[in-house]
Amino acid sequence: MYKTPLLEKSALKEKTILITGGGTGLGRSMAKGLLEAGANVIITSRKTEVIRKTAAELADITGGQIMAVTGDVRKYSDIEKVLAAGIDQFGAVDALINNAAGNFISPTERLTHKAFDIIVDIVLKGSYNCTLALGKYWIEHKHNGTILNIVTTYASTGSGFVVPSACAKAGVLAMTRSLAVEWAKYGIRSNAIAPGPFPTKGAWTRLFPAELAEKLDPKRRIPLNRYGHHQELVNLAAYLLSEYSAFINGEVITIDGGEWLKGAGEFNWLEMVPGEMWDQIEKSIRKRSKTKPSS
Ligand code: HXC
Ligand code: NAP
Q1: Per-residue pLDDT tens for 171-188?
Q2: What CATH number does residue 81 fall under?
Q3: Which atom of ligand 2 is found nearest the CA of 150?
């Protein structure tokens, strides 16, 4: 069920959606799903060949309208050019998905300041560049807009070993909530999705390298004992961009099979206790709790 599209084929008809980092991974999957729901899609990233190939393949598979425009989200002028190209082609741009990101695991003390910069620049600066460019355009043209930010669960909790990403995603989450209030008067909604692990080459090579994955299966951290399926995230994104979610504003929706809560619960590690041991543990607790405390 979760592997099939949620919305009918016309749900996003006449909407044009800009997806940063739309050539690979989750961005590519969202582009495909949104085309299938009737939207026009613009994808942008730094690698021209990658986005052109993705656009050609998705146009072929879906029969939808998709264009690829090269751009680096860290450069405001690039985003202005991407937006102008989108307006030229489709007449307007109605929604933005801030999906482009950079990340890798590392003890923070091993990072140079440049390594910190590179992640924060892509994730936070990239997201505010695109948000500002689209927001100014929507406000000037009195055009309703929708922003969807792809964050992470550790945007709320923080996490060691991905500190630049955690700082940047927390900033994006703060922007999501702030603008949900400030720009609502212009008809601009702002929401976020916090995914748990969804297999992509980009994330897996940098966050779960083979040496680690052999020792620590990341799936074991997930109560539902599986990774997310791309279509599940696509369905959530399509819903949040559609009019079905018109009253949802300033929300971050977690889609992680319960992963972050499992990490948060102080006694969740007790699942390691074998079932048959609980009789003995219960007996012991009951016995000791009846003995008089020795003041
Ligand atoms: C320590 C490192 C490093 C590492 C790079 N650096 N890799 N430091 N450990 N593994 C340092 C370099 O030494 C350098 O600093 C600085 O970072 C920039 O390095 P470059 O070589 O210029 O960068 P490069 O490796 O080309 O690019 C890094 C990157 C790249 C920008 C992150 O991998 C990229 O473009 N990624 C985009 C896609 C991506 O990352 N996708 C994953 C998203 S997944 P010095 O000072 O030495 O010059 C995601 C999911 C989260 O966000 C949640 C999952 C559950
Ligand atoms: P991915 O395939 O590596 O996607 C990242 C994309 O960002 C790439 O297409 C990359 O394209 C683009 N990008 C990077 N720097 C850019 C820049 N300066 N300008 C423009 N585009 C740039 O990884 P993914 O797993 O699909 O991640 C997509 C999003 O989901 C990210 O925001 C990530 O943090 C989030 N997320 C993923 C997971 C997961 O499990 N996969 C979990 C939580 C959150 P170029 O290299 O061509 O520029």
Answers
A1: 999 999 999 999 999 999
A2: 3.40.50.720
A3: 32
* Average pLDDT value for the chain: 96
Output the CA 62–ligand 2 centroid distance in Å. Answer: 22
Distance CA 173, CA 69 (A): 26
Tell me the ligand closest to 43's alpha carbon. 2
**What is the distance in A from the centroid of ligand 2 to the CA of 133?**
20
| Residue at 74 is within a domain | yes
CB 231 within 8 A of CB 29: yes
Q: HSE (CB half, 13 Å, CA atoms) of 23?
A: 18
Structure tokens at 4: 């099939």
pTM of the model: 0.96
- pLDDT band of residue 163 (cuts 50, 70, 90) is very high
The number of domains in the chain is 1
Query: What residue ranges line ligand 2, CB within 6 angstroms?
Result: 20-21, 23-27, 45-47, 50, 72-74, 99-103, 122, 126, 150, 152, 195, 197-198, 200, 202-203
pLDDT score at 93: 98
Note the pLDDT of residue 101. 98
Ligand 1 close to Cβ of residue 20 (< 6 A):
no
pLDDT in tens, 73-91: 999 999 999 999 999 999 9
pLDDT for 215 equals: 82
Dist. CA 103 → ligand 1 center (Å): 6
Give dist(CA 38, CA 29) in Å, integer: 15
Measured CA to CA, the distance from residue 221 to residue 199 in angstroms comes to 15
Beta-bridge mates of residue 195: 255
* Range(s) of the domain holding residue 152: 16-267
Q: Which residues are catalytic?
A: 154
Ligand 1 in contact with 218 (CB < 6 A)?
no
